[in-house]
Amino acid sequence: MERRTITPRPGWQRTVEEQGLIYPLTRRPDGSLYPYWDESAYYVFTLDEVEALEETVEELHRMCLAAAEHMVAEDRLADLGITDPRVAGAVTEAWRRRAELPSVYGRFDLRYDGTGPAKLLEYNADTPTSLVEAASPQWFWMEERFPGADQWNSLHERLVAAWRAQAALLPPGSPLHFAHSAVDELGEDLMTVAYLKETAEQAGLTTDWLAVEEIGWDTLSGRFVDNRLRFIRGIFKLYPWEWLTTDAFGGHVLDTLDNGGGTGSTLWIEPAWKMLLSNKALLAVLWELYPGHPNLLPAYLDGPRELAGSAGYVAKPLLGREGEGVTVHEAGAPPVLRDEPCCYQQLAPLPAFDGNHVVLGAWVVGEESAGLGIRESAGLITDEYARFLPHVIL
User: Fold this and answer.
1) What is the pLDDT of residue 28?
2) Cα distance between residue 270 and residue 103, in whole Å
3) What is the DSSP letter of 335?
4) So what's the pLDDT on residue 323?
5) What is the pTM of this model?
6) Which of 245, 277, 257, 281 is nearest to 101 (CA)?
7) CA-to-CA distance for 286 and 227, rounded, in angstroms?
8) Residues 98-117, buried b or exposed e (16+ Cβ, 10 A)?
9) By Cβ atoms counted within 10 A, which residue in 75, 108, 187, 362 is the most buried?
10) Across 113-119, average pLDDT
């Protein structure tokens, strides 16, 4: 693994916008604009490195599924903060029927510097973003700058194949809706949903889309409807389950939830069982089930334990995205217990390449490894101001 600098292509901003990345620049709090897509540098991997990382990702995914089975079998959903009996029942039923419920994709965030085993930082299993830039612009960048090279990137074809394989699980006779939140000012959610909608269409599915805020409720039929008053029978949502079940219409979601078997009226993708994996408590359960595993970091739910006096730790809220609420505690600092439920994970500082802290976002589609996206940040926490850099296999 190596970071190399390179001169950006003339007109790169317009190029990546035409390839689907609608926000190539990020606006900082002071109003200044900085590149989000950064092709002034790129990362190089060997084929052996990538093949080893692919095996790691698929093993981690299998371990996460085993942890989900453990949490359901041992009735440990309260460890995830899922205390509402109706929500817990919906998640449990969805897990038991998971073979009938389409699950599309997820992203593992890994610490890796090319010299040792990759370490799992978290699993974004419900609403992962940075998909478009990983699937499309970086592939075309490679073809233009390094023709004949390769890339860890089979995202597009695997997504199309996943929709095609799952078509029989979708409710017949109505479009598959794709929903994003209209309050996303940056456009990241809209961009991601639009791309997933495109891959579903390429798989032969009939689709439509709307904002989550536009979903209506028909009191006469007791069904969700779109902005054309059609029943919503199947819908992909880039909207976290913890919001979906607690919003004003959350009770209707649970009342009409199709968990497979045709007992409800609306099939939601990603399915409700993804709540078992999109929660930082998963990290502690994994360490409990696989202590000492080379790809895991020690993690606990009841406090930092020995981490406070040894390696240091990171306190992560059980739910959140873009590093929100994450705090770093150096070794030797007095332990601090947060008021909100947290996962306390061993501090594993992100490796620095030329002063840039890098995290690998490794994608799975279905059950298989599918690609890589790399983000750099100025600090130890990968936040909304991180940059995306392409990569090649040479």
Assistant:
1) 67
2) 5
3) P
4) 67
5) 0.94
6) 257
7) 42
8) beebbbbbbbbbbbbeeeee
9) 362
10) 95
| Cα separation, 64 vs 148, whole angstroms | 36
DSSP state of 266: B
The partner residues of 25 in beta bridges, in order of sequence, read 35
Helical segments of the chain, H only: 12-18, 47-73, 85-96, 131-135, 137-145, 155-166, 188-202, 241-244, 250-255, 281-289
Please give the C-alpha separations between residue 347 and each of 237, 277, 300, 379, 388, in angstroms, as whole numbers: 33, 21, 12, 14, 23
DSSP string, 229-263: S-B--EEEE-S-HHHHTTSTTHHHHHHTB--STT-
pLDDT in tens, 163-207: 999 999 998 888 999 999 988 877 789 999 999 999 999 999 999
Count of CB atoms situated within 10 Å of the CB of 145 = 16
Average pLDDT over residues 131-151: 96
- DSSP reduced 3-state for 320: coil
Two tokens at 60?
A: 């981690």
Cis peptide before 270 (omega within 30 of 0): yes
Q: How confident is the prediction for the chain on average, in pLDDT?
A: 93
Q: Is pLDDT of 33 > 80?
A: no
3-class secondary-structure state, position 308:
helix
Angstrom distance (rounded) from CA 370 to CA 361 = 11
Q: How many CA atoms lie within 13 A of 347 on its CB side?
A: 23
Q: What is the pLDDT of residue 103?
A: 92
Structural contact between residues 130 and 388, judged by C-beta atoms closer than 8 angstroms: yes
